[in-house]
Write a structure and sequence with these properties.
The chain has helices spanning 19-33, 35-38, 43-56, 65-77, 79-85, 93-101, 105-122, 127-144, 146-151, 159-164, 178-187, 206-215, 231-238, 258-265, 275-282; strands spanning 5-9, 16-17, 154-155, 169-173, 198-199, 223-228, 246-251, 270-273. It is built from 15 helices and eight strands.
């Protein structure tokens, strides 16, 4: 039986504030994907989009969703684009009603889970091609100008030192593609975490990764901690009886809303933790 603590950590919103980089990458990718729409977007509108993406970031579970949000913001900002860009879809009623009522950033924030599949159908898009495009744009940015790509991200204060000097067993469990998380840890924080300890996009749902980690012989008997910034992800863990031994934490500094934090306070399995407490515990 092992002893000590094992921490499974989300990356974006727990360790790294990547909203600036992901928004800029999404804008670059969107120009490639939908040139007939983004040809009307000027510099001022691009700046507005980036500002709004900081508000909308809590709804993003996987990076490709940034592309959808960027396009939706353009259609919100430029009505003529919205009217000309809708493709035939399966069910347009929800989107039509939102347009009629006046889509706002706030309604996107509140309705994203319902809105996302609707606009995917409206725009005749598929997840895999958007994921591939988003990753390719990031790779090209890194290859052509690594310093500016790195500078578009930042680790939250104190987190890099907490990781560097942690006496706990640490794994990264993220929906980010592993190569980008590994590059940021190495280039921005000066931390080398073995690739086998980074579970990124394509390694399976987080609940399955947690099951895998707890079942490893070297982890039997350890105290297990999972730190996330998305309430929905923590609720998915709670639904799995096999994961009852995990201590669950919602990072208050990450990509979540006050309503989500309020909801989390009513759930006995979840503890809200601030960044100073998190860094102290990790060490």
């Amino acid at each position: 039986m092992a002893s000590g603590d094992l921490y499974a950590l989300d990356f974006d919103g727990v360790l790294c504030d990547s909203c600036g980089e992901s928004s800029l990458s999404a804008l670059k990718a969107a120009k490639i994907r939908w040139p007939f729409i983004f040809g009307e977007v000027d510099t001022a509108t691009e700046k507005w989009i980036i500002d709004q993406m900081h508000i909308l970031r809590p709804v993003v579970e996987t990076g490709y969703e940034n592309l959808l949000l960027v396009r939706l913001l353009v259609e919100l900002k430029i009505p003529s684009v919205r009217k000309s860009s809708v493709c035939p879809g399966i069910n347009r009623n929800f989107l039509r009603s939102m347009v009629a009522e006046g889509i706002t950033v706030e309604t996107i924030l509140e309705s994203w889970l319902k809105l996302k599949p609707t606009i995917m159908s409206e725009w005749n898009e598929d997840k895999d091609s958007l994921v591939d495009l988003f990753g390719r744009v990031r790779d090209e940015w890194m290859d052509n100008d690594l310093p500016s790509w790195i500078e578009a991200n930042r680790f939250y204060p104190g987190v890099a030192d907490a990781l560097r000097f942690s006496s706990s067993e640490v794994y990264i469990v993220t929906t980010k593609q592993s190569r980008f998380a590994e590059a940021l840890l190495r280039e921005l924080a000066g931390i080398n975490i073995p690739s086998e300890k980074i579970y990124g996009l394509g390694t399976g749902p987080k609940v399955e990764v947690l099951k895998k980690l707890q079942a490893m012989p070297q982890h039997i008997g350890m105290t297990l901690h999972f730190v996330e910034d998305r309430l929905a992800t923590l609720n998915n863990v709670i639904k799995e009886p096999a994961l009852n031994q995990w201590n669950l934490y919602l990072g208050t500094w990450g990509y979540n809303t006050e309503n989500e934090r309020k909801e989390a306070r009513e759930i006995s399995r979840i503890k809200l933790v601030d960044i100073s407490e998190f860094s102290k515990n990790l060490k």
